[in-house]
Amino acid sequence: MLELKDFMPINYLKKEKFTGSHQGMRFRMEKAELDGEERPKLKVTVWPEPYGYDATPQDEKTETFLEFDADGLSKGVEWINEQFESQQLRWKAVSRG
User: DSSP string spanning 23-82?
Assistant: First the structure.
């Protein structure tokens, strides 16, 4: 299980994207400016290995948008863990090759 301490703080995400992987699942957190929204959102995306974000087709990615603050970051980590648990066969199929 991934923990909040393993992620970059929200101040880092103001300028950079954060990516990582966990047992066949890749993830990315980034600041997102959405049309019609006054405040930025935290975009959190997961997808199966082996490819990076840009090389993976959009239909293989699952994403959510949260508040761009420390609470949103914490909820983002929880969401990544939920995705890992709920789609275990998807990640294991990739890690087995």
Answer: TTEEEEEEEE--TT-SS-EEEEEEEESSS-TTTS-GGG-EEEEEESSHHHHHHHHHHHHH
13-67 confidence digits (pLDDT tens): 999 999 999 999 999 999 999 998 899 999 999 999 999 999 999 999 999 999 9
Distances (CA, A) of 7 to 3, 12, 49, 71, 77: 7, 10, 19, 13, 8
C-alpha–C-alpha distance, residues 2 and 86, integer Å: 14
Task: Enumerate residues 6+ apart whose C-beta is below 8 A from 71.
Answer: none
Tokens 């890992």, residue located: 84
| Amino acid occupying residue 58 | Q
